[in-house]
UniProtKB/TrEMBL annotation:
Compartment(s) where it occurs, according to its Swiss-Prot or TrEMBL record: Endomembrane system; Endoplasmic reticulum membrane; Nucleus
UniProt name for this protein: Homeobox domain-containing protein
Tree of life domain: Eukaryota
Alphabetized InterPro entries for the sequence: Homeodomain-like_sf
Keywords for the protein's UniProt record, in alphabetical order: Signal
Database matches in SUPFAM superfamilies: Homeodomain-like (SSF46689)
Catalysis: reaction(s): sphinganine + octadecanoyl-CoA = N-(octadecanoyl)-sphinganine + CoA + H(+)
Pathway(s) it belongs to: Lipid metabolism; sphingolipid metabolism; Sphingolipid metabolism
A Gene Ontology cellular-component term: endoplasmic reticulum membrane
Organism encoding this protein: Euroglyphus maynei (Mayne's house dust mite)
Primary residence: membrane
Topology versus the membrane: Multi-pass membrane protein
Record bears the keyword Signal: yes
Length: 93
């Protein structure tokens, strides 16, 4: 079991990059404390009333808030490269 970190570092990650899998996450949304709190409470699923309330509170349009939520949600997901290495690890065992 000691060789698994080496297996990931020297074989799977370079193989995934060579296959063209992006190793980075999408760019993070601009920091906004109010939207971050709302995201944590609702897990990114806002009702129409919550969306309207945030629009009034932050003085911006619905589209901007929806876009921020989508970008924040993308930050929470694992990268394609990490999914590749995890699946290769599971198949190897």
């Amino acid at each position: 079991m000691w060789f698994f970190p080496l297996f990931f570092s020297f074989l799977l990650i370079p193989l995934g990059i060579w296959l063209g899998l992006p190793p980075t996450r999408p760019r993070p949304p601009p920091s906004n404390k109010t939207l971050e709190e709302s995201y944590r409470k609702t897990r990114g699923k806002l009702s129409k009333e919550q969306l309207t309330g945030l629009c009034k509170q932050l003085d911006c349009n619905e589209r901007k808030i929806q876009r921020w939520m989508r970008l924040r949600s993308a930050q929470s997901k694992p990268t394609i490269l990490s999914k590749f290495t995890e699946s290769a690890y599971v198949h190897y065992l």
